[in-house]
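Q: May I have one protein plus its fold?
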Amino acid sequence: MEEEKKTKLTFEDSKSEYKPEYEQELLLSACLLKGEAAIDAYNQWKTSVDLDNVDPGSYRLFPLLYFNLNSQGIEDPMMNIFKWVYTKTAENNQILVKNLAQLLKEFNKSSLETILLKGTALITTCYKDYGLRPMMDADLLVPTEKAGEAIQLLSRLGWNSSITPLKGFQEMALLSRLGWTPGNRKLEDFTDEYFCVRHGQDFTNPEKFTVDLHWHVLQGYNASDADVDFWQGARSISVEGVNTLVLDPADLLLHVCSHGAKWDTISPIRWVADATWIIDSTNGEIDWNRFIEVSNRHGNVLHAKEALRYLNRYLECKVPKSVFEVLDAAHITKAQYLGYHIRMRPPGILDGFYELSFLYSNYSRTNQDKNFFRRIAGYPRFLQNVLGMEKLRHLVLYSVFEFVRRGLELPGSIIRRLR
């Protein structure tokens, strides 16, 4: 009991940079709970926020808020706002899904299997209502060994890749003035080294429809056979009459917890609603043994168990106590513990060194045939490719800029943690 308390306190502290604020937790309760609990939370929430300045993470929950309150017969002038967001979300998602279906047809013609991930999987299997879950893009998984083939197909269809995202970095215009203008990633830039350290890449067509193409489900280093269990457990589904696959509910839950429950520039509170709906839509009949096994296999035990602890406050079908007992007993390496905590907070100086060491470790795995000195000599070029930089001097500019930026933010971060 004492050990469980210690773990829980550690989680509360580590996630303080990304966990929902008080007002956001009220909103989540109003969206996910029933009866008086939901009504009380809504009444407290609406008196504590300014709708003209609501954060993007909360705005994404407005359709779900409308659905939950409307289903309980709540009448309130603000419901018109939530209904409008719900209606627009449904309209936008209908267009997105139709575009997705057309793309899936092209993949099927090329004998490329696909698995729906995140939003597209959730609205078709859990929410079953286009208006409940806003989406900016569609997420697709292809077999790891077919990633290059899938990218070539997208290129032939007129899709272009986006620039490689840099965690927490929003000063692209400044780097442009320093001589680096980020551009689209070329086909030859998608190397085996890139595939092993990235899990996916955004692509956009001329109509501005974006698909996030994944060759791995989870972020971080992934071996070529890392996703075998996800493919083996996948289930068939039809989208606008086009056949594709979705993850097993246990795998989908792990993906939502792993991808959503982390720091982001936009408060990622939507993962709480997504995960809650996955569990409740199955009436709690998640294959928990599978969830535990996959969490262990992919080194996501810490992330999984702490996310489930947080979720239990919103669930109608609570996560069984036995699940936490098994997850608490699992071995967690120092590297996994460090990686988990880094994902929970805005990027700092120490995090930058960790990210560089992580990339070097993966780079070394794919260059084992080279001696130490050749690997060291080739590492800058590897970073240049992974970060999507035209020249090595751009890598130097970015590194210096990030070191200074993160250093200037360090005092504020320390003060926030002390508070």
Residues 2-143+227-331 form one domain. The longest helix spans residues 79-109. The chain has two domains: 2-143+227-331, 349-418.
